[in-house]
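Weekly structure sync, notes
Attendees: PL (lead), two postdocs, one rotation student
Agenda item 3: pending single-chain targets
PL asked that the sequence for the first pending target be pasted directly into the notes so everyone works from the same version. It is reproduced below exactly as submitted, 476 residues in total.
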Amino acid sequence: MSNINGGMGRGGRSALSSVDFYRRVPKDLTEATTLGAVMSLCSLFVMGVLFFSETYAFAKTSLGTEIALDDNANPQIRLNFNITLLDLHCDYVSVDVWDALGTNRQNVTKNIEKWQLDEEGQRRIFSGRNRDVREVVHEEHEESLEELHEDGVHAVDLTKDTFQAFLDDHQMAFIDLFAPWCVWCQRLAPTWEKFAEEVDDEEMPIGIGKVDCVQQAELCREQRVMAFPTLRWYHEGKAVSPDYKMDRTVAALTGFAKRKLEMDEKFKDWDKKEPDPEKRARYRELHAHNRPEHPGCQVSGHLMVNRVPGNFHLEAKSKNHNLNAAMTNLTHRVNHLSFGMPDFTSGRQMKRILKTLPEEHQQFSPMDETMYHTSKYHQAYHHYIKVVSTHLDIGGNTETAYQFLEQSQIVYYDEVNVPEARFSYDLSPMSVVVKKEGRRWYDYLTSICAIIGGTFTTLGLIDAVLYKALKAGKAD
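Predicted structure, written out during the meeting:
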């Protein structure tokens, strides 16, 4: 019985041994050779190099991109901007928005702030945030301008030939620079004549004049008249800034003139009583120039715009003036322009992500710090922007940003039209998905096994061929 069980055990082991893929060769049947040792060392070296290369490739990740339909369901997108207009006063800057859905918002002030600039382009005066421009009060008169002229013309008509002489004859002068087609100038005309009559009746030492800028276009260009009407005060032949922008009534104009006279008397008293020549010089400078005013404005803020084709534009416009198209210069510098949240790049995680992105995937604000200079009037830059949603799927977190490409060109306007700096945008229906791609662990294990087995087998075949060739050579 025991023999039977023993025979069955040995038979089972024999059957199992028949499927052995790794059969042992008796040691006394093997032969160690110098060639085999060399090939073994070569095999170890090749395996080591390939192993470390494969491990490095497994540990290192790469970025891959793909194009997909944009599934962003947000109806609006945030547009951030910071633009400097180098030759346009903040009082005349209007931000307008238009889009294909019919949105037409003019003079947008919500979430927008303006800074008046000095001659060096530095921010000097805060012109307001979320502030609407105040409408000045006009005075209505029963008499027409012709009826007011029946007892004589009190506001002197000035030309290029008489302008400087008029300033020389009057230490202080108040001049209306107007255009006959301007509706605000037409409403002001009888008020200005009545104001001039009031000045004469009260014997104020002020010269009241007016200049027709259509007939005297060259003179108005020299005086840099940017809007009609421009009410400008002159002292000893020099313009005192800023220009008058308050109510256009006889009482308001008369009150302004009286305040100017009172200030002049006070400065004269200070000048007489002050013994220090340096302080006197400073008083005179303050008296001569109320406040230097440079026509430059920095406009910044953000707009919530619909995700459809549209534009926003910076236009010279005013509730109380008609702009002089011949003097409107829309030279501007784009300090910043982007779409989406403005601080999405400031987070620590996003900074790490951006460090791994190549430059071509970081076109979030390509227009920043770019100057767009127009050398002539009646022209302005129009910018055409194509916005592409970019989904950054890195590290398990998905961040959405917006890249864009832009093209800019100069557009020419008719002489009667006021130019505008236009930024037209269009959102692409496709989006770019950026993913971090790495190898799977089973791909890595498969490659390691292939390296070991392939190297061992290949060098084994080479060893066998060389061994036979050398053995045949010795036999000969």
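Discussion points:
- The chain has a mean pLDDT of 82.
- The first helix runs from residue 2 to 17.
Action: rotation student to compare against the earlier draft before next sync.
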